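so my prof wants the structure for this chain in the C-alpha coordinates format not the other one, which i didnt know existed until like an hour ago. anyway here's the sequence
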Amino acid sequence: MVRPSRWELTLRHDELVRAARLRRLVSDRPVAAFLFVAFAVAVGVPEAAVSRGALTGGDPVVGALGILGAVVPALAAVVVSGVAWGRDGVQELLSALFRGAGRLQWCVLALGAQALLSGLALLILIVATGAGDATVDWAALAVLVVVPLFAFQLWEELGFRGFLQRELQRRSVR
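here's what i got, hopefully its the right format
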Protein backbone atom coordinates (compact mmCIF):
# COMPACT_ATOMS: atom_id res chain seq x y z
CA MET A 1 0.00 0.00 0.00
CA VAL A 2 1.37 3.38 -0.98
CA ARG A 3 1.36 5.96 1.75
CA PRO A 4 0.26 9.48 0.78
CA SER A 5 2.91 12.15 0.90
CA ARG A 6 2.85 14.91 3.46
CA TRP A 7 1.80 17.37 0.71
CA GLU A 8 -1.18 15.15 -0.25
CA LEU A 9 -2.25 14.91 3.39
CA THR A 10 -1.99 18.69 3.77
CA LEU A 11 -4.05 19.20 0.62
CA ARG A 12 -6.73 16.81 1.85
CA HIS A 13 -6.75 18.52 5.23
CA ASP A 14 -7.19 21.94 3.59
CA GLU A 15 -10.08 20.62 1.50
CA LEU A 16 -11.73 19.19 4.59
CA VAL A 17 -11.31 22.48 6.45
CA ARG A 18 -12.89 24.40 3.53
CA ALA A 19 -15.76 21.91 3.36
CA ALA A 20 -16.34 22.22 7.11
CA ARG A 21 -16.38 26.01 6.88
CA LEU A 22 -18.88 25.89 4.03
CA ARG A 23 -21.08 23.44 5.93
CA ARG A 24 -20.98 25.65 9.03
CA LEU A 25 -21.80 28.77 6.99
CA VAL A 26 -24.73 27.10 5.24
CA SER A 27 -26.10 25.49 8.41
CA ASP A 28 -25.86 28.82 10.28
CA ARG A 29 -27.63 30.72 7.48
CA PRO A 30 -29.74 28.23 5.48
CA VAL A 31 -32.27 30.82 4.28
CA ALA A 32 -29.58 33.12 2.88
CA ALA A 33 -27.79 30.15 1.30
CA PHE A 34 -31.04 28.93 -0.29
CA LEU A 35 -31.91 32.36 -1.68
CA PHE A 36 -28.38 32.86 -2.99
CA VAL A 37 -28.25 29.50 -4.77
CA ALA A 38 -31.81 29.69 -6.08
CA PHE A 39 -31.61 33.20 -7.50
CA ALA A 40 -27.99 33.05 -8.63
CA VAL A 41 -28.70 30.00 -10.76
CA ALA A 42 -32.27 30.80 -11.81
CA VAL A 43 -31.48 34.35 -12.87
CA GLY A 44 -27.73 34.36 -13.38
CA VAL A 45 -27.27 31.40 -15.71
CA PRO A 46 -29.91 32.37 -18.31
CA GLU A 47 -28.98 36.06 -18.08
CA ALA A 48 -25.31 35.32 -18.60
CA ALA A 49 -26.05 33.08 -21.58
CA VAL A 50 -28.32 35.65 -23.24
CA SER A 51 -26.11 38.66 -22.49
CA ARG A 52 -23.06 36.96 -23.99
CA GLY A 53 -25.00 36.36 -27.19
CA ALA A 54 -24.93 32.60 -26.72
CA LEU A 55 -28.71 32.45 -26.99
CA THR A 56 -31.31 34.44 -28.87
CA GLY A 57 -34.96 34.96 -28.04
CA GLY A 58 -36.17 32.30 -30.52
CA ASP A 59 -33.69 29.66 -29.41
CA PRO A 60 -35.40 26.60 -27.86
CA VAL A 61 -32.67 26.49 -25.22
CA VAL A 62 -34.12 29.72 -23.80
CA GLY A 63 -37.35 27.84 -23.06
CA ALA A 64 -35.38 25.05 -21.42
CA LEU A 65 -33.61 27.62 -19.25
CA GLY A 66 -37.05 28.92 -18.25
CA ILE A 67 -37.97 25.46 -17.05
CA LEU A 68 -34.61 25.28 -15.28
CA GLY A 69 -35.61 28.47 -13.46
CA ALA A 70 -38.67 26.69 -12.14
CA VAL A 71 -36.72 23.60 -11.07
CA VAL A 72 -33.93 25.57 -9.38
CA PRO A 73 -35.81 26.23 -6.10
CA ALA A 74 -36.12 22.49 -5.56
CA LEU A 75 -32.49 21.88 -6.45
CA ALA A 76 -31.37 24.71 -4.17
CA ALA A 77 -33.45 23.28 -1.33
CA VAL A 78 -31.94 19.81 -1.78
CA VAL A 79 -28.39 21.17 -2.07
CA VAL A 80 -28.66 23.44 0.97
CA SER A 81 -30.35 20.72 3.03
CA GLY A 82 -27.65 18.26 2.01
CA VAL A 83 -24.77 20.60 2.81
CA ALA A 84 -26.27 21.86 6.08
CA TRP A 85 -27.79 18.70 7.52
CA GLY A 86 -26.63 15.82 5.33
CA ARG A 87 -28.74 12.93 4.15
CA ASP A 88 -31.16 13.33 7.08
CA GLY A 89 -31.90 16.90 6.02
CA VAL A 90 -32.69 15.87 2.46
CA GLN A 91 -34.90 13.00 3.64
CA GLU A 92 -36.77 15.36 5.98
CA LEU A 93 -37.27 17.85 3.16
CA LEU A 94 -38.64 15.28 0.72
CA SER A 95 -40.82 13.52 3.28
CA ALA A 96 -42.27 16.84 4.45
CA LEU A 97 -43.32 17.62 0.90
CA PHE A 98 -45.49 14.54 0.64
CA ARG A 99 -46.52 14.41 4.27
CA GLY A 100 -47.42 18.10 4.25
CA ALA A 101 -49.59 17.81 1.16
CA GLY A 102 -52.51 17.77 3.55
CA ARG A 103 -55.83 16.15 3.20
CA LEU A 104 -57.05 14.74 -0.05
CA GLN A 105 -59.78 17.36 -0.49
CA TRP A 106 -57.21 20.18 -0.49
CA CYS A 107 -55.09 18.41 -3.10
CA VAL A 108 -58.20 17.83 -5.24
CA LEU A 109 -59.16 21.50 -4.77
CA ALA A 110 -55.70 22.68 -5.83
CA LEU A 111 -55.60 20.43 -8.89
CA GLY A 112 -59.23 21.24 -9.75
CA ALA A 113 -58.54 24.96 -9.50
CA GLN A 114 -55.59 24.50 -11.88
CA ALA A 115 -57.83 22.68 -14.38
CA LEU A 116 -60.67 25.19 -13.97
CA LEU A 117 -58.42 28.22 -14.49
CA SER A 118 -56.75 26.61 -17.51
CA GLY A 119 -60.18 25.84 -19.00
CA LEU A 120 -61.33 29.38 -18.32
CA ALA A 121 -58.22 30.75 -20.02
CA LEU A 122 -58.93 28.56 -23.04
CA LEU A 123 -62.56 29.75 -23.14
CA ILE A 124 -61.44 33.39 -23.04
CA LEU A 125 -58.97 32.67 -25.83
CA ILE A 126 -61.69 31.06 -27.97
CA VAL A 127 -64.09 33.97 -27.42
CA ALA A 128 -61.42 36.64 -27.93
CA THR A 129 -60.10 35.16 -31.18
CA GLY A 130 -63.51 34.27 -32.59
CA ALA A 131 -62.59 30.62 -32.90
CA GLY A 132 -65.87 29.52 -31.33
CA ASP A 133 -66.62 27.09 -34.12
CA ALA A 134 -63.29 25.30 -33.69
CA THR A 135 -63.25 21.97 -32.00
CA VAL A 136 -61.48 21.73 -28.68
CA ASP A 137 -58.36 19.62 -28.70
CA TRP A 138 -58.76 17.88 -25.34
CA ALA A 139 -55.30 16.35 -25.50
CA ALA A 140 -53.77 19.81 -25.88
CA LEU A 141 -55.92 21.07 -23.02
CA ALA A 142 -54.72 18.21 -20.82
CA VAL A 143 -51.13 19.09 -21.70
CA LEU A 144 -51.82 22.74 -20.79
CA VAL A 145 -53.04 21.62 -17.38
CA VAL A 146 -50.62 18.80 -16.52
CA VAL A 147 -47.32 20.06 -17.89
CA PRO A 148 -47.24 23.33 -15.91
CA LEU A 149 -48.20 21.44 -12.77
CA PHE A 150 -45.20 19.11 -12.96
CA ALA A 151 -42.81 21.41 -14.82
CA PHE A 152 -43.26 24.42 -12.56
CA GLN A 153 -45.52 24.30 -9.52
CA LEU A 154 -44.34 21.04 -7.96
CA TRP A 155 -40.69 22.10 -8.05
CA GLU A 156 -41.39 25.58 -6.74
CA GLU A 157 -43.51 24.02 -4.01
CA LEU A 158 -40.59 21.90 -2.83
CA GLY A 159 -38.20 24.85 -2.75
CA PHE A 160 -40.35 27.63 -1.40
CA ARG A 161 -42.92 25.86 0.78
CA GLY A 162 -40.96 22.73 1.56
CA PHE A 163 -37.73 24.47 2.50
CA LEU A 164 -37.98 28.25 2.74
CA GLN A 165 -41.31 28.52 4.56
CA ARG A 166 -40.32 25.77 7.00
CA GLU A 167 -37.01 27.47 7.81
CA LEU A 168 -38.62 30.90 8.24
CA GLN A 169 -41.23 29.40 10.57
CA ARG A 170 -38.53 27.66 12.61
CA ARG A 171 -36.67 30.95 13.03
CA SER A 172 -39.79 32.92 13.95
CA VAL A 173 -40.67 30.49 16.76
CA ARG A 174 -37.29 30.90 18.49
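also thought this was worth mentioning. The mean pLDDT is 75.
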